């Protein structure tokens, strides 16, 4: 599993790109690739939990979604996670 941590800035580009991004995450959730996703309570960022074999697969997921390159969205970190409860 992998954690993608995002930071948001209040830009019109980010808000305009968000619906397509959420639609993509929903489709990936149906495929059991995205396990959980959502904004932080203060909307300063978001966390996305991804089931992927390796970092290259996570990087491909990020590269395929234009939201991650949108003004106002910063990928703070991508970390491998080893949960013992699911």
Automatic annotation (TrEMBL):
Listed Gene3D superfamilies: Dimeric alpha+beta barrel
Superkingdom as given in the UniProt entry: Bacteria
Coiled-coil residue windows: none
Domain YCII-related: 6-81
Xref: InterPro entries: Dimeric_a/b-barrel (IPR011008), YCII (IPR005545)
Family from the record: Belongs to the YciI family.
Protein name stated in the entry: YCII-related domain-containing protein
